[in-house]
Design a protein that fits this description.
402 residues; Heat Shock Protein 90; Ribosomal Protein S5, domain 2; five-stranded mixed beta sheet; 19% strand; ATP-binding; nucleotide-binding; unfolded protein binding
Protein backbone atom coordinates (compact mmCIF):
# COMPACT_ATOMS: atom_id res chain seq x y z
CA UNK A 1 0.00 0.00 0.00
CA UNK A 2 2.85 2.40 0.75
CA UNK A 3 5.79 0.62 -0.92
CA UNK A 4 6.86 0.64 -4.54
CA UNK A 5 9.20 -2.30 -3.99
CA UNK A 6 9.84 -4.74 -1.12
CA UNK A 7 12.96 -6.81 -0.43
CA UNK A 8 12.99 -9.68 2.06
CA UNK A 9 16.18 -11.44 3.20
CA UNK A 10 15.83 -14.58 5.30
CA UNK A 11 18.00 -17.40 6.59
CA UNK A 12 17.15 -20.42 8.74
CA UNK A 13 18.89 -21.03 12.07
CA UNK A 14 19.84 -24.56 10.98
CA UNK A 15 23.63 -24.95 10.44
CA UNK A 16 24.69 -24.69 6.81
CA UNK A 17 21.37 -23.21 5.62
CA UNK A 18 21.67 -20.79 2.68
CA UNK A 19 20.19 -17.30 2.66
CA UNK A 20 17.40 -16.25 0.33
CA UNK A 21 16.23 -13.02 -1.26
CA UNK A 22 12.60 -12.28 -2.18
CA UNK A 23 11.77 -9.28 -4.40
CA UNK A 24 8.37 -7.86 -5.39
CA UNK A 25 7.11 -4.63 -6.93
CA UNK A 26 3.47 -5.25 -6.08
CA UNK A 27 2.62 -7.11 -9.26
CA UNK A 28 1.69 -10.77 -9.45
CA UNK A 29 5.29 -11.73 -10.29
CA UNK A 30 8.02 -12.03 -7.63
CA UNK A 31 11.66 -13.13 -7.67
CA UNK A 32 13.26 -15.63 -5.28
CA UNK A 33 16.99 -16.38 -5.33
CA UNK A 34 19.80 -17.42 -3.03
CA UNK A 35 21.76 -14.57 -1.47
CA UNK A 36 25.11 -14.41 0.25
CA UNK A 37 25.93 -12.59 3.47
CA UNK A 38 22.45 -13.04 4.93
CA UNK A 39 22.31 -13.24 8.74
CA UNK A 40 20.07 -15.65 10.64
CA UNK A 41 16.53 -14.34 10.83
CA UNK A 42 14.50 -12.12 8.52
CA UNK A 43 15.11 -8.58 7.30
CA UNK A 44 12.54 -6.59 5.32
CA UNK A 45 13.46 -3.50 3.30
CA UNK A 46 10.58 -1.30 2.15
CA UNK A 47 11.12 1.22 -0.65
CA UNK A 48 8.44 3.82 -0.02
CA UNK A 49 6.46 5.48 -2.77
CA UNK A 50 7.13 9.15 -3.35
CA UNK A 51 3.74 10.15 -1.89
CA UNK A 52 4.19 7.98 1.24
CA UNK A 53 7.50 9.27 2.54
CA UNK A 54 5.94 10.35 5.84
CA UNK A 55 6.18 6.70 6.92
CA UNK A 56 9.97 7.11 7.07
CA UNK A 57 9.45 9.32 10.11
CA UNK A 58 10.10 7.67 13.47
CA UNK A 59 7.05 9.34 15.00
CA UNK A 60 4.78 8.05 12.22
CA UNK A 61 6.09 4.49 12.53
CA UNK A 62 5.72 4.65 16.31
CA UNK A 63 2.08 5.72 15.97
CA UNK A 64 1.34 2.85 13.58
CA UNK A 65 2.98 0.26 15.84
CA UNK A 66 1.23 1.63 18.94
CA UNK A 67 -2.16 1.61 17.25
CA UNK A 68 -2.16 -1.78 15.54
CA UNK A 69 0.44 -3.93 17.33
CA UNK A 70 0.60 -2.60 20.86
CA UNK A 71 -0.54 -5.90 22.40
CA UNK A 72 1.31 -8.54 20.33
CA UNK A 73 3.23 -11.11 22.36
CA UNK A 74 6.70 -10.73 20.82
CA UNK A 75 8.68 -7.52 21.47
CA UNK A 76 8.81 -4.76 18.85
CA UNK A 77 11.77 -2.35 18.79
CA UNK A 78 12.14 0.95 16.96
CA UNK A 79 15.70 2.33 16.83
CA UNK A 80 16.64 0.18 19.82
CA UNK A 81 13.62 1.12 21.96
CA UNK A 82 10.83 -1.34 22.71
CA UNK A 83 7.45 -0.04 21.59
CA UNK A 84 4.86 -2.57 22.83
CA UNK A 85 5.00 -2.52 26.62
CA UNK A 86 1.29 -3.03 27.40
CA UNK A 87 -0.20 -6.39 28.21
CA UNK A 88 -3.31 -7.72 26.51
CA UNK A 89 -5.07 -8.31 29.81
CA UNK A 90 -8.19 -9.62 28.07
CA UNK A 91 -6.17 -12.72 27.12
CA UNK A 92 -5.25 -13.38 30.75
CA UNK A 93 -7.23 -15.25 33.39
CA UNK A 94 -9.64 -12.82 35.13
CA UNK A 95 -8.50 -14.19 38.50
CA UNK A 96 -4.93 -13.04 37.81
CA UNK A 97 -5.86 -9.41 37.09
CA UNK A 98 -6.16 -6.83 39.83
CA UNK A 99 -8.61 -3.95 40.00
CA UNK A 100 -5.84 -1.40 39.38
CA UNK A 101 -4.92 -3.18 36.12
CA UNK A 102 -8.49 -2.89 34.89
CA UNK A 103 -8.52 0.79 35.83
CA UNK A 104 -5.27 1.52 33.97
CA UNK A 105 -6.45 -0.41 30.93
CA UNK A 106 -9.75 1.49 30.90
CA UNK A 107 -7.96 4.82 31.09
CA UNK A 108 -5.85 3.77 28.11
CA UNK A 109 -8.65 2.61 25.79
CA UNK A 110 -11.17 5.30 26.82
CA UNK A 111 -8.66 8.16 27.06
CA UNK A 112 -10.19 8.99 30.43
CA UNK A 113 -8.96 9.77 33.94
CA UNK A 114 -11.72 8.39 36.15
CA UNK A 115 -12.39 4.82 37.20
CA UNK A 116 -15.01 2.78 35.33
CA UNK A 117 -18.43 2.32 36.89
CA UNK A 118 -18.65 -1.35 35.89
CA UNK A 119 -16.11 -3.79 34.41
CA UNK A 120 -16.92 -7.11 32.76
CA UNK A 121 -14.07 -9.50 31.88
CA UNK A 122 -15.66 -12.13 29.68
CA UNK A 123 -14.23 -15.34 28.22
CA UNK A 124 -16.14 -17.64 25.89
CA UNK A 125 -15.04 -20.77 24.05
CA UNK A 126 -18.31 -21.98 22.48
CA UNK A 127 -20.17 -21.27 20.25
CA UNK A 128 -17.51 -18.64 19.42
CA UNK A 129 -13.98 -18.26 20.69
CA UNK A 130 -14.02 -14.83 22.23
CA UNK A 131 -12.29 -12.85 24.98
CA UNK A 132 -13.64 -9.45 25.92
CA UNK A 133 -13.37 -6.63 28.43
CA UNK A 134 -16.24 -4.15 28.69
CA UNK A 135 -16.35 -0.99 30.80
CA UNK A 136 -19.15 1.42 31.65
CA UNK A 137 -17.87 5.00 32.11
CA UNK A 138 -18.55 6.56 35.48
CA UNK A 139 -19.15 9.99 33.91
CA UNK A 140 -22.72 10.84 32.97
CA UNK A 141 -23.07 11.48 29.22
CA UNK A 142 -23.63 15.12 28.38
CA UNK A 143 -26.68 16.47 26.57
CA UNK A 144 -24.52 16.79 23.45
CA UNK A 145 -23.55 13.10 23.63
CA UNK A 146 -27.18 12.07 24.00
CA UNK A 147 -28.40 14.26 21.13
CA UNK A 148 -25.83 13.10 18.59
CA UNK A 149 -25.26 9.60 17.29
CA UNK A 150 -22.34 8.16 19.23
CA UNK A 151 -19.92 5.86 17.49
CA UNK A 152 -18.83 2.52 18.84
CA UNK A 153 -16.42 2.52 21.76
CA UNK A 154 -15.34 -1.11 21.31
CA UNK A 155 -12.20 -2.14 19.43
CA UNK A 156 -12.05 -5.43 17.53
CA UNK A 157 -8.92 -7.61 17.70
CA UNK A 158 -7.93 -10.99 16.34
CA UNK A 159 -5.12 -12.70 18.25
CA UNK A 160 -4.08 -9.33 19.77
CA UNK A 161 -3.83 -7.65 16.35
CA UNK A 162 -6.16 -4.68 15.86
CA UNK A 163 -8.73 -5.02 13.08
CA UNK A 164 -10.84 -1.92 13.71
CA UNK A 165 -10.64 0.78 16.36
CA UNK A 166 -14.40 1.40 16.46
CA UNK A 167 -16.21 -1.77 15.49
CA UNK A 168 -19.71 -0.49 14.79
CA UNK A 169 -21.37 -3.89 14.36
CA UNK A 170 -19.91 -5.71 17.36
CA UNK A 171 -22.56 -4.29 19.71
CA UNK A 172 -26.02 -2.85 18.95
CA UNK A 173 -26.31 0.93 18.84
CA UNK A 174 -28.09 1.20 22.18
CA UNK A 175 -24.89 -0.07 23.86
CA UNK A 176 -22.77 2.67 22.29
CA UNK A 177 -21.76 3.92 25.76
CA UNK A 178 -19.75 0.73 26.41
CA UNK A 179 -15.94 0.98 26.17
CA UNK A 180 -13.72 -2.06 25.72
CA UNK A 181 -12.15 -4.63 23.42
CA UNK A 182 -13.30 -7.84 21.74
CA UNK A 183 -10.75 -10.44 20.60
CA UNK A 184 -11.99 -13.36 18.52
CA UNK A 185 -9.78 -16.02 16.96
CA UNK A 186 -12.60 -16.93 14.58
CA UNK A 187 -12.18 -13.66 12.67
CA UNK A 188 -9.65 -13.88 9.86
CA UNK A 189 -7.10 -11.07 9.53
CA UNK A 190 -7.21 -11.40 5.74
CA UNK A 191 -10.85 -10.29 5.52
CA UNK A 192 -11.64 -6.64 4.93
CA UNK A 193 -14.06 -4.89 7.27
CA UNK A 194 -16.56 -4.51 4.43
CA UNK A 195 -16.73 -8.31 4.17
CA UNK A 196 -16.90 -8.66 7.94
CA UNK A 197 -19.98 -6.45 8.08
CA UNK A 198 -21.78 -8.92 5.84
CA UNK A 199 -20.52 -11.90 7.83
CA UNK A 200 -22.92 -14.07 9.79
CA UNK A 201 -20.10 -14.49 12.30
CA UNK A 202 -20.26 -10.80 13.28
CA UNK A 203 -24.04 -10.93 13.67
CA UNK A 204 -23.81 -14.02 15.85
CA UNK A 205 -21.04 -12.44 17.92
CA UNK A 206 -23.19 -9.33 18.44
CA UNK A 207 -26.13 -11.39 19.72
CA UNK A 208 -23.94 -13.32 22.15
CA UNK A 209 -22.23 -10.21 23.54
CA UNK A 210 -25.52 -8.31 23.87
CA UNK A 211 -27.08 -11.10 25.92
CA UNK A 212 -23.99 -11.35 28.11
CA UNK A 213 -23.99 -7.61 28.84
CA UNK A 214 -27.70 -7.65 29.67
CA UNK A 215 -27.17 -10.54 32.09
CA UNK A 216 -24.22 -8.72 33.66
CA UNK A 217 -26.21 -5.53 34.25
CA UNK A 218 -29.15 -7.47 35.69
CA UNK A 219 -26.77 -9.18 38.12
CA UNK A 220 -25.29 -5.82 39.11
CA UNK A 221 -28.75 -4.40 39.81
CA UNK A 222 -29.35 -7.25 42.26
CA UNK A 223 -25.89 -7.02 43.79
CA UNK A 224 -25.88 -3.27 44.54
CA UNK A 225 -29.24 -1.59 43.94
CA UNK A 226 -28.05 1.87 45.02
CA UNK A 227 -25.12 1.86 42.60
CA UNK A 228 -27.31 0.57 39.79
CA UNK A 229 -29.90 3.30 40.46
CA UNK A 230 -27.23 5.93 39.81
CA UNK A 231 -26.15 4.08 36.67
CA UNK A 232 -29.73 3.94 35.42
CA UNK A 233 -30.28 7.64 35.99
CA UNK A 234 -27.25 8.28 33.77
CA UNK A 235 -27.80 5.64 31.08
CA UNK A 236 -31.48 4.71 31.30
CA UNK A 237 -32.20 6.60 28.07
CA UNK A 238 -30.01 4.18 26.11
CA UNK A 239 -31.94 1.17 27.45
CA UNK A 240 -35.25 2.71 26.45
CA UNK A 241 -33.74 3.26 23.02
CA UNK A 242 -32.80 -0.42 22.90
CA UNK A 243 -36.40 -1.48 23.50
CA UNK A 244 -37.72 0.84 20.79
CA UNK A 245 -35.10 0.01 18.15
CA UNK A 246 -34.82 -3.76 18.70
CA UNK A 247 -36.97 -5.86 16.38
CA UNK A 248 -36.96 -9.18 18.26
CA UNK A 249 -39.63 -9.35 20.96
CA UNK A 250 -37.58 -11.72 23.12
CA UNK A 251 -34.65 -9.30 23.16
CA UNK A 252 -37.02 -6.42 23.99
CA UNK A 253 -38.19 -8.30 27.07
CA UNK A 254 -34.61 -9.01 28.11
CA UNK A 255 -33.69 -5.32 27.85
CA UNK A 256 -36.84 -4.42 29.80
CA UNK A 257 -35.37 -6.27 32.78
CA UNK A 258 -32.87 -3.41 33.06
CA UNK A 259 -35.52 -0.71 33.38
CA UNK A 260 -36.45 0.93 36.66
CA UNK A 261 -39.67 2.69 37.57
CA UNK A 262 -40.50 5.36 40.08
CA UNK A 263 -42.56 4.53 43.13
CA UNK A 264 -45.26 7.15 43.53
CA UNK A 265 -46.75 8.65 46.67
CA UNK A 266 -50.31 9.98 46.86
CA UNK A 267 -49.24 13.02 44.85
CA UNK A 268 -46.41 12.61 42.35
CA UNK A 269 -45.59 16.33 42.56
CA UNK A 270 -44.91 16.02 46.29
CA UNK A 271 -42.91 12.85 45.76
CA UNK A 272 -40.58 14.60 43.33
CA UNK A 273 -39.37 16.83 46.16
CA UNK A 274 -39.16 14.11 48.80
CA UNK A 275 -37.14 11.01 49.53
CA UNK A 276 -40.10 8.76 48.78
CA UNK A 277 -39.40 8.75 45.02
CA UNK A 278 -37.30 5.62 44.55
CA UNK A 279 -36.43 3.37 41.63
CA UNK A 280 -37.88 -0.13 41.53
CA UNK A 281 -37.58 -3.12 39.22
CA UNK A 282 -40.60 -5.06 38.03
CA UNK A 283 -39.11 -8.23 39.50
CA UNK A 284 -39.80 -6.76 42.95
CA UNK A 285 -43.49 -7.26 42.19
CA UNK A 286 -43.24 -10.96 41.32
CA UNK A 287 -46.21 -13.00 42.56
CA UNK A 288 -48.15 -9.78 43.09
CA UNK A 289 -51.19 -8.79 41.10
CA UNK A 290 -50.53 -5.87 38.76
CA UNK A 291 -53.41 -3.85 37.36
CA UNK A 292 -53.28 -1.09 34.81
CA UNK A 293 -55.24 1.91 36.07
CA UNK A 294 -55.84 3.28 32.59
CA UNK A 295 -57.11 0.11 30.89
CA UNK A 296 -58.36 -2.32 33.53
CA UNK A 297 -60.29 0.16 35.66
CA UNK A 298 -61.32 3.03 33.40
CA UNK A 299 -62.06 1.07 30.22
CA UNK A 300 -62.79 -2.54 31.10
CA UNK A 301 -64.75 -1.99 34.31
CA UNK A 302 -66.27 1.40 33.62
CA UNK A 303 -69.71 -0.04 32.98
CA UNK A 304 -69.64 -2.01 36.22
CA UNK A 305 -68.21 0.77 38.39
CA UNK A 306 -69.58 4.21 37.62
CA UNK A 307 -67.21 6.21 39.85
CA UNK A 308 -69.93 8.41 41.31
CA UNK A 309 -67.51 10.91 42.78
CA UNK A 310 -65.77 11.30 39.42
CA UNK A 311 -62.28 11.33 40.88
CA UNK A 312 -59.37 9.89 38.89
CA UNK A 313 -58.99 6.12 39.12
CA UNK A 314 -55.47 6.24 40.53
CA UNK A 315 -56.66 8.33 43.48
CA UNK A 316 -59.36 5.74 44.31
CA UNK A 317 -56.81 3.02 44.95
CA UNK A 318 -56.09 2.66 48.63
CA UNK A 319 -52.57 3.79 49.44
CA UNK A 320 -52.19 0.91 51.91
CA UNK A 321 -53.27 -1.70 49.38
CA UNK A 322 -51.54 -0.53 46.21
CA UNK A 323 -48.35 1.03 45.00
CA UNK A 324 -48.27 3.22 41.89
CA UNK A 325 -45.43 2.90 39.39
CA UNK A 326 -44.71 5.76 37.01
CA UNK A 327 -44.38 3.57 33.93
CA UNK A 328 -45.63 6.09 31.41
CA UNK A 329 -47.24 4.93 28.18
CA UNK A 330 -44.49 2.57 27.09
CA UNK A 331 -46.87 -0.26 26.18
CA UNK A 332 -49.09 2.07 24.17
CA UNK A 333 -46.03 3.55 22.43
CA UNK A 334 -44.66 0.13 21.46
CA UNK A 335 -48.08 -0.91 20.17
CA UNK A 336 -48.50 2.22 18.08
CA UNK A 337 -44.99 1.94 16.67
CA UNK A 338 -45.88 -1.44 15.16
CA UNK A 339 -49.01 -0.15 13.39
CA UNK A 340 -48.83 0.22 9.59
CA UNK A 341 -48.63 3.72 8.18
CA UNK A 342 -51.96 5.34 7.22
CA UNK A 343 -52.95 5.16 3.59
CA UNK A 344 -52.45 8.23 1.43
CA UNK A 345 -56.22 8.49 0.97
CA UNK A 346 -56.63 8.98 4.74
CA UNK A 347 -54.15 11.84 4.66
CA UNK A 348 -55.99 13.52 1.80
CA UNK A 349 -59.38 13.23 3.50
CA UNK A 350 -57.98 14.81 6.67
CA UNK A 351 -56.42 17.66 4.74
CA UNK A 352 -59.71 18.36 2.90
CA UNK A 353 -61.58 18.49 6.21
CA UNK A 354 -58.98 20.87 7.63
CA UNK A 355 -59.07 23.18 4.62
CA UNK A 356 -62.87 23.27 4.61
CA UNK A 357 -62.96 24.86 8.08
CA UNK A 358 -60.08 27.36 8.12
CA UNK A 359 -61.87 30.02 10.15
CA UNK A 360 -63.75 27.86 12.58
CA UNK A 361 -61.05 26.87 15.04
CA UNK A 362 -59.93 29.47 17.51
CA UNK A 363 -56.19 29.36 17.05
CA UNK A 364 -55.19 30.93 20.39
CA UNK A 365 -57.38 28.49 22.29
CA UNK A 366 -56.00 25.59 20.23
CA UNK A 367 -52.46 26.60 21.15
CA UNK A 368 -53.45 26.78 24.81
CA UNK A 369 -55.02 23.33 24.58
CA UNK A 370 -51.87 21.83 23.05
CA UNK A 371 -49.84 23.32 25.89
CA UNK A 372 -52.24 21.95 28.51
CA UNK A 373 -52.09 18.50 26.88
CA UNK A 374 -48.30 18.57 27.12
CA UNK A 375 -48.47 19.54 30.80
CA UNK A 376 -50.86 16.66 31.51
CA UNK A 377 -48.70 14.19 29.57
CA UNK A 378 -45.67 15.26 31.62
CA UNK A 379 -47.54 14.44 34.83
CA UNK A 380 -47.46 18.01 36.14
CA UNK A 381 -51.22 18.22 36.75
CA UNK A 382 -52.80 16.12 39.47
CA UNK A 383 -56.38 16.46 38.20
CA UNK A 384 -56.76 16.88 34.42
CA UNK A 385 -60.53 17.37 34.62
CA UNK A 386 -60.09 21.13 34.66
CA UNK A 387 -59.08 21.23 31.00
CA UNK A 388 -61.82 18.94 29.68
CA UNK A 389 -64.26 21.81 29.23
CA UNK A 390 -61.97 23.73 26.90
CA UNK A 391 -61.29 20.59 24.89
CA UNK A 392 -65.01 19.91 24.46
CA UNK A 393 -65.62 23.47 23.24
CA UNK A 394 -62.88 23.10 20.63
CA UNK A 395 -64.39 19.83 19.41
CA UNK A 396 -67.84 21.40 19.16
CA UNK A 397 -66.50 24.29 17.07
CA UNK A 398 -64.61 21.91 14.81
CA UNK A 399 -67.70 19.74 14.19
CA UNK A 400 -70.28 22.54 13.76
CA UNK A 401 -70.00 22.66 9.90
CA UNK A 402 -70.66 18.91 9.77
Amino acid sequence: MVAGRVEVYSRSASPGSPGYQWLSDGSRVCEIAEASGVRTGTKIIIHLKSDCREFASEAQVRDVVTKYSNFVSFPLYLNGRRMNTLQAIWMMDPKDIGEWQHEEFYRYIAQAYEKPCYTLHYKMVAPLNNRSIFNVPDTKPSAFDVSRELGSGVALYSLKVLIQTKATDILPKWLCFIRGVVDSEDISLSLSWELLQESALIRKLQDVLQQRLIKFLVDQSKKDAEKYAKFFEDYGLFMREGIVTTAEQEVKEDIAKLLCYYRKTQRFSSAMSSDELTLLHLREFDKKKLISVETDIIVDHYKEWKFKDGSPAAERLSEKETEDLMMGAARHFCTCSSWPRPRRSEHSSCSRCWRSTPGILAWPRLVDQIYENAVIAAGLVDDPRAVVGCLNELLVQALEPH
